[in-house]
Write a structure and sequence with these properties.
Elements lengths: L1 E7 L13 H9 L2 E4 L6 H10 L3 E3 L7 H6 L3 E6 L2 E6 L8 H8 L5 E3 L7 E4 L5 E4 L13 E8 L2 E9 L10
Parallel strand pairs: 1-2, 2-3, 5-6, 6-8
Antiparallel strand pairs: 1-9, 4-5, 7-8, 9-10
Length: 174
């Protein structure tokens, strides 16, 4: 069976945006599994994503308070279509990330993370794929806001695509 995947992080609603852009909600509706790598800021978005997602896998981030930390783990693990995923908000400095994460997450195929708002897609020497979708609401030093999509099929992660979020009225870009 094939599963459509959506990767989000660092939504920061309502601090960086009042709400998620409709483009992101359309991606949620199209996804079989939604991953969110933390920095929700309020539980309202978590509640809405839980209601609107077929399956939601999520963690808390450094900007998430006690209410979110009570509901979400620091590290999540899931197997989707034979692919072993782990997710954490923060992985530390970019330098040496692949080796650190490979040591910390043995037996994992794909590690999803956030925090930097900077998209990342690399593979460690041992084969661990590291994915950061950026942020759909706060581009920081990036040209645009982003998220990732992919397909899981028979133990393989396919069609990983960084998707730019189109500018819309009312969404924070800075």
């Amino acid at each position: 069976m094939v599963s459509k995947l959506l990767f989000l992080a660092d939504t920061h609603v309502p601090k960086r945006a009042r709400q998620l852009p409709e483009q992101v909600w359309d991606a949620v509706a199209a996804a079989d599994v939604v991953f969110h790598a933390g920095d929700w800021v309020t539980a309202d978005l978590l509640d809405e994503l839980e209601q609107r997602s077929r399956q939601l896998i999520s963690v808390y981030g450094n900007n998430d308070g006690a209410d979110l930390r009570a509901r979400l783990p620091e590290v999540a693990a899931a197997t989707v279509e034979g692919i072993r995923f782990a997710m954490i908000h923060e992985t530390g400095a970019a330098k040496g990330r692949e080796q650190r994460c490979e040591a910390r997450f043995p037996g994992v195929d794909v590690l999803v993370f956030g925090h930097s708002h900077i998209p990342w897609d690399t593979t460690s020497p041992g084969g661990l794929r590291l994915l950061n979708p950026g942020s759909p609401t706060d581009r920081r030093r990036q040209p645009v806001c982003t998220y990732l999509t992919a397909t899981a099929d028979g133990g393989r992660l396919l069609d990983v695509k960084l998707v730019p979020v189109e500018k819309t009225a009312g969404r924070a870009q800075e």
